[in-house]
Amino acid sequence: MKKLPFVTKEQIEEIAKTYPTPFHIYDEKGIRANAQALKEAFSWNKGYKEYFAVKATPNPFLINILREYGCGCDCSSYTELMLSEAMGITGSDIMFSSNDTPAEEYVYAHELGATINLDDFTHIEFLEKTIGTLPETISCRFNPGGLFKISNDIMDNPGDSKYGFTTEQLFEGFRILKEKGVKHFGIHSFLASNTVTNEYYPMLAKILFELAVKLKEETGVHIAFINLSGGIGIPYRPDQEPNDIRVIGEEVRKVYEEVLVPAGMDDVALYTELGRFMMAPYGHLVTKAIHEKHTHKEYIGVDACAVDLMRPAMYGAYHHITVLGKEDAPCDHMYDVTGSLCENNDKFAIDRMLPAIDKGDYLVIHDTGAHGYAMGYNYNGKLKSAELLLKEDGSVELIRRAETPKDYFATFDCFAIFDKLQKEM
Ligand SMILES: *Cc1c(COP(=O)(O)O)cnc(C)c1O
Fold first, then answer.
1. Among 19, 166, 235, 366, which is most buried by a count of CB atoms within 10 Å?
2. Residue 424: pLDDT above 70?
3. Which of 386, 407, 410, 406 lies closest to 397, judged by CA?
4. Distance (Å, rounded) from C-alpha 73 to C-alpha 272?
5. pTM over 0.85
6. Are 68 and 28 spatial neighbours (Cβ–Cβ below 8 Å)?
7. How far is the CA of 318 from the centre of ligand 1 (A)?
8. Predicted confidence band at 150 (pLDDT cuts at 50, 70, 90)?
9. How remote is the CA of residue 392 from the centroid of ligand 1, in Å?
């Protein structure tokens, strides 16, 4: 399928007059339609709730849109909890799914009344010592180990992942927690990332639902919710078939009716913690071609770099590129599209067939709405870009300004050199 941007060349030329490139721009209309579809797909489950994985796109303006569709926040750090609290999202609207958790983060999550999702057996004791008690409701993260396979395809390798309790630890953990007075239990698991198949959630649901029945039978606990977490992916490549959330919701319902309902567990709420699926397709990184270089290869140098989008440099991830105004031109030129970091992996595309690119052309890098801006860093003293929201009425709102040197040097504010730096800004 041809991947087309949600903005045109004319729109970007207009926007760039006020907000110079590079910037991330998000599509409100797309975010809303997708959030609505997710909500409908799981509306058969009475307690269903999506906790948006804040780490994917930690911007309150975007999270506020999701909130209208009943979403809460999935947090995993102190500042993510702060952001949620500042937005008025507290209590059971927060799922705290952290790992290797510092004590002060448990204290804060507990103060906010967040549902705590323990990553490890030893955290039972750690949490109890840290906050002086145990909450009435608690969740534990499960990791069955081994390989996670669909048919003959290996989807991911839980045996090699640092997260979660083993099966034995989970049964033992639930017994201990019950003895200590915990009343309501949740089970969480995240076994495969960025799955582009409708089968992942139904398969995961079967594993977790069967586990829940056993846990209830053997330990006598009340299972209040099952958290399918993140992992529903998006088609980064044009040849990939997108997931159909309606089919996924329907298949999970079938498993629910097969496994949980006969066990008398028809009150179990389902939760999700999607990040990528909620936002990735609805963000573009917009950047301008500022140089061309003809050496051993053909290079296009753009004004964005890995600081704005790290996934290609970090994992060799594919992000589709559209040259605005040349959507229908033949892709008959092979380029490496590079940023300016002094790192040879700072390339948004390698050996990519694209239309002939001229200096001044705007490039849209697709699917940057999740794990895009958020992963940014400041290497080479590069400053992070702005974030813009393309609203449903076609207007554009600045939802995070670009960094300035002042931001970059802010952490020197207790040193003498800071005054000199300030003068130069
Ligand atoms: C990253 C993460 C998510 C979101 O994952 P996506 O791949 O963006 O859906 C959800 N839950 C936890 C615990 C995570 O670490």
1. 366
2. no
3. 386
4. 10
5. yes
6. no
7. 19
8. confident
9. 27
Give CA–CA dist 193/210, Å, rounded.
22
Q: 136, exposed or middle or buried, with CB in 10 Å at 0-12, 13-18, 19+?
A: exposed
User: 95 CB under 6 A from ligand 1?
Assistant: no
Best residue among 55, 116, 162, 271 to mutate for probing ligand 1, ranked by most atoms within 8 Å of CB: 55
417, with CB counted inside 10 A (0-12, 13-18, 19+), is: exposed
Q: Could you tell me the two tokens for 142?
A: 């499960």
**366: CB partners within 8 A, 6+ apart:** 3, 5, 236, 281, 284, 319, 320, 321, 322
Band of residue 188 on the pLDDT scale cut at 50, 70, 90: very high
pLDDT, average across residues 48-73: 98
- CA pair distance 296, 351, nearest whole angstrom: 12
Q: Which long-range contacts (CB under 8 A, 24 or more apart) does 397-406 make?
A: 397/61, 398/19, 399/26, 399/59, 399/61, 399/62, 400/59, 400/373, 402/23, 403/378
SS3 343: coil
75 in helix, strand or coil?
A: strand
The answer to whether the CB of 97 is under 6 A from ligand 1 is yes
| Tokens, residue 159 | 């045996």
Q: Among candidates 234, 277, 263, 241, which has minimal Cα distance to 42?
A: 277
Q: What is the pLDDT of residue 355?
A: 98
Contact 417, 53 (CB under 8 A): no
Token pair recorded at residue 311: 């996934």
**106 vs 214: CA distance, rounded Å:** 29
Ligand 1 near 98 CB (within 6 A): no
Burial 315-327 (b: 16+ CB within 10 A, else e): eeebbbbbbbbbe
Predicted pLDDT of residue 421: 87
What do you get for the CA distance between the two ends of the chain, in Å?
47
Q: Hey, whose CA ends up nearest to atom 13 of ligand 1?
A: 97
Q: Answer whether 229's CB lies under 8 Å from 205's CB.
A: no
Picking from 270, 281, 219, the residue whose alpha carbon sits closest to that of residue 248 is 270
Note whether 349 and 335 are within 8 A (CB). yes
Cβ–ligand 1 contact at 276 (below 6 Å): yes
Inter-residue contact 227 to 117 (CB < 8 Å): yes
